[in-house]
Amino acid sequence: MTYQMENAWETTDQKENARGMTYQMENAWETTDQKENARGMTYLRENAWGTTDRRENARGTVDQKENVRGTTDQR
């Protein structure tokens, strides 16, 4: 498992792994935690005023959820 934590005000972190998928993380005043398990699924969690939970599985589908201040559910 890969764990990355980042504390910043408006920091953007973009990564690309061996499978060619691109992950972009941006947080405000809290910590972004990115986890990848053995099945290759990536979980990106952002704790701030609007919590973002982004999931991308092996088929390449992205499930992005954002709640609290501005509720956005993109699938």
UniProtKB/TrEMBL annotation:
<feature type="compositionally biased region" description="Polar residues">
    <location>
        <begin position="1"/>
        <end position="11"/>
    </location>
</feature>
<feature type="region of interest" description="Disordered">
    <location>
        <begin position="1"/>
        <end position="20"/>
    </location>
</feature>
<feature type="compositionally biased region" description="Basic and acidic residues">
    <location>
        <begin position="52"/>
        <end position="75"/>
    </location>
</feature>
<protein>
    <submittedName>
        <fullName>Putative ovule protein</fullName>
    </submittedName>
</protein>
<feature type="region of interest" description="Disordered">
    <location>
        <begin position="45"/>
        <end position="75"/>
    </location>
</feature>
